[in-house]
Amino acid sequence: MKKLLIACCIVAGLASCNNYGTKLKIEGTKSELYYKSGITETEAKNTGDFLKKEFIGDDRAASMQLTKDGDVYTLRLVYDKTYYTDSLKNGEMLFKTLGYKASKDVFGGKKVTIALADENMKDFKVIPYDESIAKIIDTPADPQNRGYDHDSAGGVNFYWKDISDDESKTIADYIVKNGAFSGGKAEIYMNKEDGRYVLRFPMLASALTSDTYISMVDKVSKEIKENVFADKAYSFIVTDDQLATVRKWDY
């Protein structure tokens, strides 16, 4: 499972003079987790470790809260409401995924609700635990079943359909030459939709919350446009591991 790009608009600042609970600094980050009665210190620390790994990243400042009502945990994230409502693609699904992973990795299968809140910890969006997400998350996308051909070069796995082998080779040759996606297990999915070339990139777990890496993707997507699709319509899309759109650049 890949770390989620939804972290790009978490908000660190909280209004002062409010009882958000016991404050826990998440080691190795600029972030903080508050936890209320009913939550043990161990649960809070494990949640912090989970969020560092799956959500906030080492260089991300964020404010969050963990509460419990009966057997249901609520993970509250101070988040940019405008970004969620106007810009984030498939936001509810992405946060349901986060809730499922927290349930599985931290709370022994207990339900986890995700709440998005303002700087006063007032919720503007509540996303309940969705049991159907498990079937989606635990069944990885199979490129072969989606009709893609496959080859690898320069440490990158390339998948393509609805374009010729020559077209796919031209794209792949430049991406390998560029070198931005080498050195790991990157995947690039290439196809053509309504006359527009589309490249999809499932984001690496270690990079999804890094502003530096997102800036690099923006830069590389423009370089691909200039060197491969100078006179053609083209889109570069960052996706989750089910190839659902998270962020998109149209050229």
Report on this structure.
By secondary structure, the protein is an alpha/beta fold. It has two domains: 5-137, GMP Synthetase, Chain A, domain 3, CATH 3.30.300; 143-250. The chain has six helices and twelve strands. The strands form two sheets. A six-stranded mixed β-sheet has the order 1-2-3-4-5-6. The protein has a six-stranded mixed β-sheet with strand order 7-8-9-10-11-12, with helices on one face. Helix 1 (41-56) links the parallel strand 2 (32-35) and strand 3. The chain is elongated.
Short description:
The protein is built from six helices and twelve strands. The protein has 251 residues and is α/β, with parallel strands linked by helices. Helix 5 crosses helix 6.
In terms of topology, how is this protein built?
Blueprint: E1 22-25, E2 32-35, H1 41-56, E3 63-69, E4 72-78, H2 81-86, H3 91-105, E5 112-117, E6 123-127, H4 133-137, E7 149-153, E8 156-160, H5 165-178, E9 186-193, E10 196-202, H6 211-228, E11 234-239, E12 245-250
Parallel strand pairs: 2-3, 4-5, 8-9, 10-11
Antiparallel strand pairs: 1-2, 3-4, 5-6, 7-8, 9-10, 11-12
